[in-house]
Design goal:
It is built from eight helices and eleven strands. The strands form two sheets. Strands 1, 2, 3, 4, 5, 6 and 7 form a seven-stranded antiparallel β-sheet that branches. A four-stranded antiparallel β-sheet has the order 8-9-11-10. The protein is α+β, with helices and mostly antiparallel strands.
Length: 245
């Protein structure tokens, strides 16, 4: 079975992701309402939380795993816009704007996600101005991230943008193998990598060849080994924390 309702080992009050989410604005009694009403489920890669065009059914809080937000145009062409990991809230814009979902939330790695239904979210927003402020802050942070991505696309080379995305994936999904080398299993195809760095899909093969020739990364299908993490970090300004070495 690909999706199961799971019994959480902790309630909302002691959830390790709570301080990263909007729910930190709520008091104990309000958190208890969320705890009673939320649905916690596991999702496997390839599944979706919601589809572009759906009416907002609620707010999704990511406990663990990795979710990608995908946009599809009228011709069926899709691009992967963002990566969302533990502590991120998705789906809230449809609730706040009272419009349909603008993206599809696609599961990229095994994820545990809590759904808080629309009716309760609306009730809590009406009762707690602080919660509304937190969602506004989340919206502004999302806008900042989009602006940062755009600036990166203008200021960095394709190779640096490519390495930055590899570091982001390592930060969220990576591990060290038996030899101590940083490794990750890519959860997306090359076309989606191209979308994330603002490049043509055919450029990705050339970038992979380049970084392998320079001894930075080694690719074996979707398995990526960082053969020289220090050199990769030097190539990428404001690189995410690698957690290696």
């Amino acid at each position: 079975m690909l999706m199961n309702r799971v019994k959480s080992n902790h309630n909302c009050a002691n959830c390790p992701s709570r301080q990263k989410t909007e729910w930190r604005a709520l008091g104990a009694s309000e958190l208890a309402l969320v705890d009673q009403a939320k649905q916690t489920r596991t999702f496997e890669p390839g599944m979706t939380l919601y589809h572009q065009g759906d009416q907002g059914g609620g707010v999704y809080c990511i406990q663990s795993g990795l979710i990608g937000l995908r946009r599809i145009d009228e011709n069926g062409k899709s691009v992967l816009l963002r990566l969302c990991s533990a502590g991120t809230t998705v789906g809230y814009r449809a609730i706040l704007s009272k419009q349909a979902q603008r993206d599809t939330a696609e599961v990229l790695s095994s994820s545990v996600v809590c759904l808080v239904g629309r009716s309760l979210v609306t009730k809590l927003l009406a009762a707690s101005p602080q919660l509304g402020e937190r969602f506004l802050q989340r919206l502004l942070e999302d806008v900042d991230e989009i602006e940062d991505d755009y600036a990166r696309s203008l200021m960095l080379s394709q190779k640096s943008r490519f390495l930055h995305v590899m570091l982001v994936f390592y930060e969220r999904l990576g591990y060290q193998d038996e030899t101590g080398k940083p490794v990750l299993e890519l959860p997306i195809q090359r076309g989606d990598i191209a979308s994330l760095i603002g490049a043509r899909p055919e450029s990705i093969s050339r970038l992979i060849h380049k970084v392998q020739t320079e001894g930075l990364l080694h690719f074996d299908s979707r398995r990526v080994m960082f053969t020289d993490m220090d050199a990769v970090l030097r190539e990428v300004p404001d690189a995410p924390e690698s957690g290696a070495g």
